Amino acid sequence: MPNMSPKKVQIPEQDPQIRRKNFDEVALGYTLEQAMEEATRCLQCKTKPCVDGCPVNVPIPEFIKAVEDGNIDEAYSIITKENALPAICGRVCPQESQCEGRCVRAKKGESVGIGRLERFVADYIMSKGNIEPKNIEKNGIKVAVVGAGPAGLTCAGELAKKGYEVTVFEALHELGGVLLYGIPEFRLPKSLVAKEVQSIIDMGVEINKNVIVGRSITVDELFEEGYKAIFVGSGAGLPKFMNLEGENLNGVYSANEFLTRVNLMKAYDFPNNPTPVKTGKRVAVVGGGNVAMDAARTAVRLGAEEVYIVYRRGEEELPARLEEIHHAKEEGVIFKLLNNPTKIIGDEKGWVTGMECVQMELGEPDDSGRRRPRVKENSEFILPVETVVIAIGQSPNPLIRQTTPGLSVESWGGIIVQEETMETSKEYVYAGGDAVTGAATVILAMGAGKTAAEAIHKKVLELQG
Ligand SMILES: Cc1cc2nc3c(=O)[nH]c(=O)nc-3n(C[C@H](O)[C@H](O)[C@H](O)COP(=O)(O)OP(=O)(O)OC[C@H]3O[C@@H](n4cnc5c(N)ncnc54)[C@H](O)[C@@H]3O)c2cc1C
Ligand code: SF4
Fold first, then answer.
1. Predicted TM-score (pTM) of this structure
2. Which of 149, 195, 297, 322 has the fewest CB atoms within 10 Å of its CB?
3. Mind telling me which residue stretches traverse the membrane in this protein (predicted)?
4. How far apart are CA 129 and CA 195, in angstroms?
């Protein structure tokens, strides 16, 4: 008999008052007993609606059944046939709008905790340290991958499984892309990212760090070096700004810079690590997505006394995951909804002292389906803050498109691909992830990497005759 409790088994979490002061992970994860109990909530539906909601088609009921039976090795092997980064996806995927959003249990109560179970399985196996590197016979065909984010790593792993000699070229000195420098430690421990990345390297993928494709070497030069196909997973690392007066004052950051300083450069441990990040007592983060929540919660942990999310629409329109909004509120982040900045104000030395805002109201829905915000007359006010973090989105870095003749791109910079194959306008060049879609999700980037790997395999086989 399935467990018909309308609620998920609770996941233990650090107390908000304690976690406000540390960068340790917030959610602590299920024990084996808790995971097995949650697994009994799955109805093992024949139609598997949850799987339809998963962009990489993890066989969800099958892996949950294995957890219910206490066979975690089996569960891990089922998941990793389709998803090479389960500990990461179990933590950061927007499950509520994907697998869990389709779960039949969500019709009367809470969905099965698919993400929590996926995370449990990955953590359990990694804690035992028994992920065996597989011995794969090489086929001698070289493929290059640009970028070691989830799109590039997934594509590399899938091709390596098929025997290709894959080399990943990564601009930074560390691997993982946004998983490493964007998403903070308290949501995604970096040691975990390193372990999952290592499991891909163990498939025989070669890694070339500190190489900026488009500067150190171009896409065409990679072909000259004998690579038969190239996958571009270079992400969307270029921050957007609002072009506000005062945006270049000291104390204004893009979320990208703010989070990179803290995550990758370990600014939270200054002066033991050499990169400082200055937050005043009061911080305003402009935006309402996951990036904004991460920046706000990071500012709390750096010791800011008042941290505001300034977002021009209402609560219902906030694009961040529900869990992140909930956690931010618990940690004391103040939501100033229906407010929009108009100007950043500074002192005579060029440091931020405040942000002028206007109040907004919502009108009819716009093209994105969200209600269009409009300014309320005479509603200007000044929010006194010493730091402003702009978190309103990122776009693809222009370097690859500028140095790769024949590559068609959208007006906003996204690389244009054929959806079924991820092939670009340049033959044998494929692309996926944020470089194609603009800022999106980890799992969509992974899905694109998988699709491209399959298509590259077919195309290169054709080449071989
Ligand atoms: C703060 C933050 C929080 C987020 N939270 C979530 C979340 O909770 N859930 C979720 O699903 N998604 C989240 N996202 C989005 C998610 O991280 C991205 O959609 C995903 O990482 C995109 O993967 P990618 O591989 O396309 O690009 P990236 O992760 O950006 O990786 C691209 C890699 O390419 C490298 N690169 C770029 N240009 C070059 C070049 N010319 N040569 C060589 N290397 C290059 C970069 O250094 C980087 O390592 C978040 C994003 C941010 C910024
Ligand atoms: S939809 Fe929900 S209950 Fe049905 S198989 Fe998937 S996880 Fe289990």
1. 0.92
2. 322
3. none
4. 10
pLDDT at 363: 87
Residue located nearest, by CA, to atom 8 of ligand 2:
42
pLDDT tops 90 at residue 444:
yes
- Give 331-383 as a DSSP string: TT-EEEESEEEEEEEE-TTSBEEEEEEEEEEEEEE-TTSSEEEEEPTT--EEE
Q: Ligand 2 center to residue 355 CA distance, Å? A: 47
Give the neighbor-by-neighbor strand order of the sheet with 165-169.
Answer: 206-208, 165-169, 142-146, 229-232, 429-431
Domains and CATH numbers, the chain: 16-128 (1.10.1060.10), 142-237+396-463 (3.50.50.60), 239-393 (3.50.50.60)
The rounded Å distance from CA 105 to ligand 2 centre is 7
Residues 13 and 30: beta-carbon distance below 8 Å: no
- Which pLDDT value is given to residue 133? 62
Residue 74 DSSP class: H
Give, for ligand 2, the residue of 103, 108, 117 to mutate: max count of ligand atoms closer than 8 Å to Cβ. 103
Q: Which amino acid is at 10?
A: Q
3-state secondary structure of 143: strand
Give me 5's structure tokens: 């409790």
Compute CA distances 248 → 243, 244, 253, 351, 388, whole Å.
Answer: 9, 9, 9, 10, 11
